Each structure stands twice: as structure tokens, then as C-alpha cells.
Amino acid sequence: MRRPRPSRKHRGVHAKAVQRGWTWPFRGEADLSDAPSPFAFAAGDLRRSQVEVRTYVEALAQKLEQALPDRTSVERRREGLFAKTQQVAKLTFRGDRAVYELSLGKAQVIARKAKVVRGIAISSTELAPPQWLAELGAEVRELAQATGAASDALLDFL
Questions:
Q1: What distance in Å separates the CA atoms of residue 150 and residue 17, rounded to the nearest whole number?
Q2: Which of 19, 46, 154, 158 has the fewest CB atoms found within 10 Å of its own CB?
Q3: Count of domains forming the chain
Q4: Residue-number span of the structural domain to which 58 is assigned
Q5: What percent of the chain is modeled with pLDDT above 90?
């Protein structure tokens, strides 16, 4: 199999490389697919983690919608112009003390918690998604305990 001839611009470079004993491919012309690079691994991990995050947020949205539909609102958007599937764009949960909002962009997840007093949001802070999830879980547990205590009181009254 014959190698293609270098272009006129590179003929001088090729001759010098042969004189120096370099072999093909010359420095800087190596095929990047030969050796796995750390960048390729990092990009693959990032792509997989974005897919996982979208899947987990979709599952969380479905669970909250089914369990507490009056406190949960979910905004969805289509993946493309003609796509039939929709992805969660924003998840909002209204608790007694705070409003929890999770927004999914193309490359990032933004988790916010807004402190609510008498139905008015006083302050809003961005949280790391694991911390946001932990605080949301604590709020849901408190609501479940309060609801359980109220139903026990009603049963005792009857």
C-alpha cells in the first residue's frame, strides 16, 4: 500500500523528517484515536452523568406528582422540534416553610430554595443538588408526620 504524497507545502518538512530518521506519522500528526486520552474519558463520564441526572429528575418528578399533586408542579419541554418525548425542565415543590425549585438546563442543574412566610417568598438561595435533595426529603417527611398526626386526631375524634 502506497502512502499519499505530501503536499508541496509539506515536502520540505517530509524530507527533513526522513533525514532525521523520524517515522510516519510525524510529531503532531498522530491519530488521536490510537491512544485513549483523559479528555475523552472525562467527556464520556460527563455525558453519562447528564443522562443519569435527567433520568433521576424524571423519576423524582413522577413520584412527587403522584404522591403530592397539589404541592408539585412540573414543567416539561420537548427534546427537539419533532420529538415526541418530553423532558423535565423545571420541578417545583411548595412546602410549608419553603419552595424548592430544580431547573434543568442543557448543561447544568440549578437547585434553589426560597424561604416562604405567609405565602410570600422572602429569600432565595442556590444549593448544591445533594443538599437540595436532602432538604426536600426533610420537608416531605415533616409533611407526612403532620398529615399522619392530623389523621390520627380525626380517627380518635370519630
A1: 85
A2: 158
A3: 1
A4: 40-157
A5: 21
In angstroms, the CA 119 to CA 136 distance is 18
| Region of poorest pLDDT, from 10-24, 65-79, 95-109, 140-154 | 10-24
In a domain, 14, yes or no: no
For residue 12, the SS3 value is: helix
Q: Which 3 state secondary structure label does DSSP give 44?
A: helix
**What cell does 131 get?**
443538599
Domain membership flag for residue 34: no
Q: Within 10 A of 117 (CB to CB), how many other CB atoms are there?
A: 10
CA–CA dist 61, 74 (Å, integer): 7
The per-residue pLDDT for range 32-80, each reduced to its tens digit, is 455 555 656 666 665 666 678 888 888 889 998 888 889 999 998 887 7
pLDDT at 9: 55
